[in-house]
Amino acid sequence: MKRGVYMNKNKVVRLAVVGGGRGGTFSKVLSNLADKAQLVAVCDHDEAVLDRWKDEFPEVRSYDNYERLLDDGQVDAVFLATPLFIHARQAIQALQAGKHVISEVIAITTLDEGWELIETVEKTGLTYMMAENYCFMRPNMMIENMVQHGLFGDLVHVEGGYIHDIRNLTHYPDGKLTWRGNLLKSYRGNTYPTHSLGPVAKWLDLHRNGEDQFESLTTFVSEGLAGQIYYKELFGKEHPGAGPDHWKQGDSAVTLIRTKKGKLITLRYDIQSARPHNMTHYALQGTKGAYLSPRHHNEDPLIWLEGRSPGISSDGSAEWETLWNYADEWEHPLWQSWGSVAEQAGHGGGDFSGFPSAATDCTDSGNTELHMTESYTSTVGWVPSRIADTNSCRTIRRFLEW
Amino acid sequence: MKRGVYMNKNKVVRLAVVGGGRGGTFSKVLSNLADKAQLVAVCDHDEAVLDRWKDEFPEVRSYDNYERLLDDGQVDAVFLATPLFIHARQAIQALQAGKHVISEVIAITTLDEGWELIETVEKTGLTYMMAENYCFMRPNMMIENMVQHGLFGDLVHVEGGYIHDIRNLTHYPDGKLTWRGNLLKSYRGNTYPTHSLGPVAKWLDLHRNGEDQFESLTTFVSEGLAGQIYYKELFGKEHPGAGPDHWKQGDSAVTLIRTKKGKLITLRYDIQSARPHNMTHYALQGTKGAYLSPRHHNEDPLIWLEGRSPGISSDGSAEWETLWNYADEWEHPLWQSWGSVAEQAGHGGGDFSGFPSAATDCTDSGNTELHMTESYTSTVGWVPSRIADTNSCRTIRRFLEW
Description:
Two copies of one chain form a homodimer.
Chain A: E1 13-18, H1 20-23, H2 27-31, E2 37-43, H3 47-56, E3 61-63, H4 66-70, E4 77-80, H5 87-96, E5 100-103, H6 111-124, E6 128-130, H7 138-148, E7 155-163, H8 179-186, H9 194-204, E8 214-221, H10 226-235, E9 253-259, E10 264-270, E11 278-286, E12 289-292, E13 302-305, E14 321-322, H11 327-330, H12 333-342, H13 350-363, H14 369-382, H15 384-387, E15 394-395, H16 397-401
Parallel strand pairs in A: 1-2, 1-4, 2-3, 4-5, 5-6, 7-10
Antiparallel strand pairs in A: 7-11, 8-9, 8-15, 9-10, 11-12, 12-13, 13-14
Helix pairs in contact in A: 5-6, 6-14, 7-9, 7-12, 9-14, 12-13
C-alpha cells in the first residue's frame, strides 16, 4: 500500500489543479481550507492560462506538461478539471504516480476504463473521489439526512433533471467545436447523468452497502433540432452544424432505472433546448412523505411529511410546506459546519462542500470505499448512452458482478 | 348510416346518464346547456341512487336495467359514468341500439375491445366521444392554442403526471374492494394514462391527421408498499390487502413513449403514495419555448417564449413568466365562449368544456373523426400496462396499422 507515501507531516494535502481554466474557480474555495489543503501547482497546455495563474498566484508552480506535473514529489493529490474524455486516463496516470485524485464528472466513458480505474485504485491504495458536486448542495444534503433518519419512510420513486442550454459552450468563436460540441456530435443518450443521478443515488443508498443496485434501465431520446437552429442562426447554413445529420444527440433524453429492490428512478437530460435553466430538478416519493425541488430560483423546495406537514394524503387535504421549515432540525451536519463558507462557492455550495470530505480522506487513515462506490455510480450512469440508439431495455448483468 | 335517426327536430340532444352516482355531478353542467342537451333519463342498479334522482329531478325517467334504457326511443345519447371495466361493452351496446355515446375514461381495456368499438362506430355512423376531461382544462386548452399557432416552435418533449392518492376510494367501509381496488389488485403498469396523455397528445397532434403516431414505449413500475400500509392501518393485518402479495400494482409507474417523428413523451402515474395531490402535472419543451404547470394550486403555470419572455436561453438569463400574461391574446376560443360557465364545473372546467363540443357533434352533420381518434389515443394508452411486467420495450406494430 502506497497510501500516504508523499503525505506531508502536518497533514495538509498539497494539491495540483489540472485544467487551469475551470480549475481556477476553485482557488477561492481552497483559501478557506488552509488547514486541510494547499494549492501548490497548476497544469495547463495553454500558455495564456498559465500566465494568468502566475500573475494571480506567483507561489503556485506551473506546468504545461501533465507527465512533468506527476513527477513533482511535492504534490500529494491532483484535481482533474479537464474535458471529460480524458478524466479516466489522467486519473489512472496520477494514481500510478502515487497521487490521490479528485476528478470532475464524468469519471469514465467506457466500462473498460471503469474497470482499469477501479483496479488501479485498489492496487495503489490511494484515494480516488469523483467530485459530483450536486450531491453537496444544501437541499440535497438536508434531504439525504432526513432520508437516513427515516422521515420519508421507504423510498419508491426519485427524479433528477439536468436542463441547461449550453449551446454557447459547444463552439469556439470561429465555429470550431469544443469538447462539449463533440459530445453532442458523436454520442446519443443520457451522456452526462451524474448531476441528476448523484444526489438521488445517495438518497437510495445505491451501490454502497451492497443492499441495492441497478437492475434494468432504458433511455429514450427525442429528435435533435436545437443544435441545427442555433448553428444556422449564428454561423449560417454553410456550417456543418446547421445540417440535419451533424448531431447524433437529440434535444431531450429521459432515462428510467429500476433497482433490485424495486425503486424507480427517472432522469431527464437536456443541454440544448431554449428555456430557463433548471440544472437541479429533484423529486422524491416515499411511503411517508415527498419532496419536490423548485421550478426556478425564486421558489422554495417543498416537502410533505405524514403526521407533521398540514393535511392528510388520502382525503386530498395534504399541503406542501417549505423545506426550510425543517432546517433547524435537519440541516446536514456537514452544512452546519461549513455552510457559511460554502455559500460563497459555485453551484449552490456544491463546488465547496465536497472538499473538506475529500481532504480529510486524503490525510486520515480511513474509508476509501465511499468514494470508490461513487465512481461505480458514474460508471453505470454512463451506460444508458450505449443503449439509447436501439431504445432497448435490458438487465445490465455487469452490475450484478459489482 | 343511422346517424340522426332518433334526432329531435330542434336539435336538442336527449341525454341519459348511465351510472347515477358520479353522473349526478354533471346535471348542473347540463342546466347551462339547455339549448344543446336535455337530461331525460338515468340508469343505475342501485335503488337508493335512483330514489335520490327522483327526488331531485322528478321529470327524469329512471331505469334500473341498461337494456331497458336502450329501448327508450326518446333517448338520443348515453353518457357512460360507470366503472371503467364495462365502458367498452356498454358503448358498443348503445351504438348498436342507435344511441350516440359519451364515455368517461378509460374507454377500453383490451385491444380486441378497441377494434370492436371502432368497427361499431364506423358501421353505425353514430358519434362516439371519449370524454377525456383534462384536455378541456383552461391552461391545457390555452397551450394547445399557442402550440397550433407555432409559438413554441417544434415540440420535442412533453410530460404528463397523474398523482392522486385515492386509497380511500379503493374499498367500501367494510373493507371489500371497489372497482378501483380491483384495478390495483389485478393490474400492473400505467393503467389509467389518459388524464396525463390526453392533453399532451393533443399538443403533439398525435393520431389525428396521420402525420405522427406512437412508435415505441415502455413502462417501469416501482415496488408496491402504500397499499399494504394503508390496509394494515385501517383494517388490521388480517385483511388480505395488508399482505405483501395482494396488490399487483406498484406505487409509482413511469411510461416513456417515442413517436414516429421523434417526439418524446414522459408520463407518471401514482394513485397510492402519501403526498399532496397533483393530478395535473404537465410540461412542454419546444424549439422556441417551454411550459411548466404549477406544483400546487397556489402557484401559476409558467411559460417562456423566445423573443417575448424575459432573457436569453443560451446565456442563462431566461426567466419564466406566468402563463396568464398571455390569456388576453391566446385564451382558447372555446374557453372564451364558455369559460364563465365552465369554472363552476369540476376538474378545472374540464367536466364542462367537452360538452358543447360533444353536443354540437351529435346534432350537426360533421366530423366524427375527431372523437374516434381520441378513442385511439385511449387504446394505445392502455397498452403499457400489458408490457410492464417484463420491463420490455418494443415497437407496437399494431399502431402502424392505424
